[in-house]
Amino acid sequence: MTKMEVVARASEEQQHTADGAAVCVEEDRVYVGAEDGKLKVYNHHTMELVQEVTAHEYAITDLLLLGASLFSASADATVKVWDSATLTLRTTAPPHEEAVRKMATNGVHVFAGDDKGDVRLYDVDGRCRGAHSMVEEVWALHAQEDLLYTVRDRGITISRLSGTSNKSSVVASLDGRAPMVVSGEYLVCGDAGGMSLVVRENKTKSGKELGLLQGHEMIITALAKCGEGRVVSSGYDNSLKLWDLKGLKEVASCPLPGCPGALAASEDGCIFATGSGGYVCKVKVV
């Protein structure tokens, strides 16, 4: 029987002083951003603090790794690019008009969506290479090849981006709300009530609904891929759940220290969570 348990946690002295809002992991480094504007790096194995910088004046809203670059997005309307090994600031992109909420990458560009509904494209060095207007706030974002998935609380829009201009065309509109992730052939997002997850085919022509993942008692706030055909979710019920997308079933669950602002899974199958009060913890699937 599959089980999950919290196996390590940052100490109160080393965790954030405000709610954790973003987390990503690469090899033995776990990057965490919080509403205090600080960016901290923890050791993957021990959850000991390795390094920290004051990255933004206001809350960090998302973090993303591309190559040797670590991108940070913030409510201060900026996107910054850091050397992922040293946390040396490489560049600060010209500010958006509104707070930047979420980022995604197709492996070539980084897409940053803001509260105005604008999505800007950045190269690995943080140079802006284009912009697209999505009309409404971007609460979740996914990019693959020339497709961009954006969602707020009422519907998912899948757009095809032009390779030569800032133009885009809508190729599909689906019911759903943030959070949202795409895992191979599956598209997973919140349902209208926010307490269940909708699993769809990741196909622009149909987006067929395959089923619902039900089990949370309160609204889901965080969702992440966790290996092939699996996702993890959590929310205001402080319960972390691992789901099998093909079987449409819960595989395992465990309590978290608080409501998570973000989740991330490492290549070795560990799950990292950060959230209320600034906690940062590591969960192992056994």
Set out the fold topology:
Elements: E1 4-9, E2 20-26, E3 29-34, E4 38-43, E5 49-54, E6 60-66, E7 69-74, E8 79-83, E9 89-92, E10 100-105, E11 110-114, E12 118-122, E13 128-133, E14 140-144, E15 147-151, E16 155-161, E17 168-175, E18 177-183, E19 186-190, E20 197-201, E21 209-213, E22 220-225, E23 230-235, E24 239-244, E25 249-255, E26 260-265, E27 271-275, E28 280-285
Antiparallel strand pairs: 1-28, 2-3, 3-4, 4-5, 6-7, 7-8, 8-9, 10-11, 11-12, 12-13, 14-15, 15-16, 16-17, 18-19, 19-20, 20-21, 22-23, 23-24, 24-25, 26-27, 27-28
WD repeats: 53-92, 213-253
Pfam family, one: WD40
InterPro entries: Quinoprotein_ADH-like_sf, WD40/YVTN_repeat-like_dom_sf, WD40_PAC1, WD40_repeat_CS, WD40_rpt
Q: How would you sum up this structure, described in words?
A:
This is Guanine nucleotide-binding protein subunit beta-like protein. The structure is a single chain. This protein is mostly beta strands. The protein has a single domain (4-285), classed as YVTN repeat-like/Quinoprotein amine dehydrogenase (Methylamine Dehydrogenase, Chain H), CATH 2.130.10. 0% of the residues lie in helices and 57% in strands. It contains no helices and 28 strands. It has a four-stranded antiparallel beta sheet, with no helix packed on it. A hairpin with a 6-residue loop joins strand 16 (155-161) and strand 17. The N and C termini lie close together (8 Å). The mean pLDDT is 95.
